[in-house]
Input
Amino acid sequence: MVQKVHATPEAAMADLKDRGIIRDGMTVMVGGFGLCGIPEKLIVALRDTGVRELTCISNNAGVDDFGLGLLLQTRQIKKMVSSYVGENATFEKQFISGELEVEFNPQGTLAERIRAGGAGIPAFYTATGVGTPVAEGKETREFYRPSEDTRAMNRELKGAVRAEGARKRTYVLETGLYADLALVKAYKADHFGNLVFRKTARNFNAMMAGAASFVIAEVEDLVPVGGIEPDQVHTPGNYVDRIVRTVSEKRIEQRTTRAG
Amino acid sequence: MPLSRDQITIRAARELKDGYVVNLGIGMPTLVANHIPQGMDVWLQSENGLLGIGPFPTETDVDPDLINAGKQTITARLGASYFSSSDSFAMIRGGHIDMCILGAMQVSEEGDIANWMIPGKMVKGMGGAMDLVAGVKRVVVTMEHNAKDGAAKLVRKCSLPLTGQACIDMVITDLCVLEMDHARQRFVLKEVAPGVTPQDVRAKTEAEIIIPDSVPTVSC
Output
């Protein structure tokens, strides 16, 4: 079996520069929502490779001293593709000065672009963003909503109906996304790379594991092949090239509690 | 007396129905969760991948892997489910969420909404707002009727970049409740705050709105 497990994040990336997988100007997907489910040790290791001019596809940009904020501090990111970047002063400074390019995507469009890219779908239509700056310059087309018109969806389907009063609606064409490298965080992996995510730390990690040429997973628990029930696997092992077990800090952005 | 923020959320909670799946935006809309009527089963969805938000955790139950879309630590209720971001937005875009409540900077008379960017100011991004207003069956806005400087927020046409087009079904402000008449593409004044007259609302609203002969007072 191919040895996917590496002892440290650094070891998991050690040969990737020589192999041309990590290179200046590359596109990298980084999983997580806020600081939840980010591959925190892999981000540090990527920083330490010294790679520059990164295009980084990630829902958020971390905070100043944690997560992708680390790669912003060292100015290794040229462009971010994100949906929301609220909590980062370094980001704000570089964005306002024009040093950092940002492409904002609606969160669902971003998620679906990543899913589509990994699923071999080059583009898809969505109603999200129609009539907003997001749709500017993009192709649009009118369709019935799938739920309102099974007849238009499947012309061969006998008895399919169009809902009364159904009207066509405008949709915008969005493209799939695919990266050179994806860094994802999972709760558990086996040595083949089958992944199990935990709670809301799954977020973008699940799709990103399918949408890059090379995928490294940072995990908290590593078990032998057979240690995960096939029914419990969230991401099948063939998507994952390398696995690193780490002890993560798992920082909390907004600790909110009730008495009791 | 204009409605307080708390009263606006109480009024918004009256739009909930038993069995509803609801997404609450960050800020004032989040507080609607505190006013879900006793005995009503409402499922709160969090777009980062959870259906069935529970109460905030006790200090010992805090879990960094369990947060809401506002990045606050939360819990999951019995019967909850976790899923990926693409599954979450498939749920939203696919029309499987009954209602969402969110804030707005401007709402136009035809139900356009602007709530994510002010040109010339730092843009933080739209997050999931564009997907929610485009995909959720019923979209309710809670906001102050006017901006701090008195400027109308219910306008003829949004001057700010849009979040979504013709997608707002109801607006609840400190002054009134407005419901979209989809056939006429105008909001109808449905209720006014105690002590507020329909004329007061008209004076503070730039949008063309429909005012029926009699408008009841909000009870909350």
Residues 5-13 of chain B form the longest helix (9 residues).
